[in-house]
Amino acid sequence: MSRRARLALFGIAACGLAALLLWSITGLPKFGDYHGAYGKILDKAAPRERQTSNVVAAVVFDYRGFDTMGEELILFAAVMGVAMLLREPREEEAPVPEDPVRSDALRACGVSFAGATLVLGLWIVAHGYVTPGGGFQGGVILAAAFLLVWLAGSYRSYRRLTPVPIVELGEGTGAGGYVVIGLCALLIGDAFLQNLLPYGVAGKLSSGGSIPLLNWASGLEVTAAFVLLFNEFLSERAVLIDPTRRPS
Amino acid sequence: MVALQATIMILVALGALAVVLTNDLVRLVIVSSAYTLLLVVLFVVLQAPDVALSMLVVGTIGYPLVLFVAIRRDRADE
Amino acid sequence: MSYLPFVLAAWIFLVGIFGIVRSRHFIHLVVSLSLTQSSTYVLLLSIGYVKHGGAPIFKDVPLGTKAVDPVVQALTLTDIVVSVTVAALLLAVAIEAKKHAKTMNPDELRPVRG
């Protein structure tokens, strides 16, 4: 099919779909006029029942914890897929690219930012169930801290900081740990992923029962997944910096 | 509040159109990152700070980096 | 205003599909697909929004204050992080496809024959 014919066909189909969508929108409750009982009940019950001041975290890691486990396993599978597709059989001594950063000032600033980013990431993960944040958001920031070492420092120290076996171990521990915490609840006779620890006092780091454990498990999983993702894409890039040295 | 919400929603709508109409790939990464920043503002306005934080880290770290390396890889072969 | 957010979600969805249809490059296609996905975030969050409601975080806020729906937010926030890794997987597939087909333009790919 030619490009023009495809766009024309899309135009007709899009008009039909747009009409249907607009028609369905008029049947929705008005914006801001929310009728769902579930969310309202959780807003009232969760802070008292689970002692978490961030209700979203309570939903992610407790009330809908099983759903989050599914998301984590999608993350795990997607990163495994990237690793399988991009990882070529490389020799032990892969060619190390020359570092583009030669300015000392940039290097010093960048590496000190990496430290600050690391602390920020840990803070966001740790306070996930008290204030906005959590394992998912904090995990990406933690991975960015490692990446800053490569961006501002050197590729060699980035690789030394993130050895692939350790990162893979972290990813497996994060994904597996989440499931194991769920199974622990089964062992003591509760439902899968049931909250099993004392709830503590809302607003403190020691609150929410097993929510902190699941939070840290997903933080570890996301951090490792993103570092691994960057590793796979970067080693492709690294190999390509000098095309004459490309293996195979 | 309503005016603020309407403004940011219209900006998001224009941003989405700008993303799909950009053909140059490097420019596309920048434009799509700007679009995710608009979404971050929209999510904050819709009282969803957790989601906004999630979109912020993903739109400024995750997507641009992965896309840039993919572009680099694509161009290196030519 | 009362239907604007839902119209916005429908608009982003249609614009994203338009991007996929007119795409000349796999990377552009992946970005358009992620854009289409972002329409679901807008739709979910606007459905859960409560007029004059605050964020569902009760730190230094008395319990029982009017707040928006936390469930839709929980659904969205994990999905956003996961969507990057899925986009990365698609890009990895595109990079592999280029090795075999020598092109990143979806139009130039020949149909697969068994």
Protein architecture, described:
The complex is a heterotrimer of chains A (248), B (78) and C (114). Chain A is mainly alpha-helical and 248 residues long. Helices cover 69% and strands 0% of the residues of chain A. Chain A has one domain (36-245). Chain A is globular, with a radius of gyration of 23 Å. The two termini of chain A are 38 Å apart. By secondary structure, chain B is mostly helical. Helix content of chain B is 88%, strand content 0%. Chain B has 3 helices and no strands. Chain B has helices at 2-21, 25-45, 49-76. Chain B starts with a helix and ends with a helix. The model of chain B has no long low-confidence stretch (mean pLDDT 91). By secondary structure, chain C is mostly helical. Helix content of chain C is 65%, strand content 0%. The radius of gyration of chain C is 19 Å and the shape is elongated. Classes of the chains: A mainly alpha (248), B mainly alpha (78), C mainly alpha (114). The A-B interface holds A 54, 56-57, 124, 132-134, 136-137, 140-141, 143-144, 147, 226, 229-230, 233-234, 236-237, 240, 243 and B 49-50, 52-54, 56-58, 61-62, 65-66, 69-70, 72-73, 76.
End-to-end separation of chain A: 38 Å
**What is the count of β-strands of chain A?**
0
Overall mean pLDDT score of chain A?
85
Tell me the helix content of chain A.
55-70%
Largest interface, chains and sizes: A-C, 63 and 51 residues
Strand portion of chain B: under 5%
- The multimeric state of the shown protein is heterotrimer
- The value of Rg of chain B in angstroms is 14 Å
Uncertain stretches of 5 or more adjacent residues of chain A:
239-248
Strand content of chain A: under 5%
Strand element count of chain B? 0
Structural class of chain A: mainly alpha
Instruction: Sketch the major β-sheet of chain B.
Output: none
How many helical stretches of chain B?
3
> What portion of residues of chain B is helical?
over 70%
The rounded distance between the terminal residues' Cα atoms of chain B is 51 Å
Question: Helices and strands in order, then pairings?
Answer:
The complex is a heterotrimer of chains A (248), B (78) and C (114).
Chain A: H1 3-25, H2 37-49, H3 55-63, H4 65-86, H5 104-126, H6 135-152, H7 155-161, H8 164-187, H9 211-241
Chain B: H1 2-21, H2 25-45, H3 49-76
Helix pairs in contact in B: 1-2, 2-3
Chain C: H1 4-22, H2 26-48, H3 70-101
Helix pairs in contact in C: 1-2, 2-3
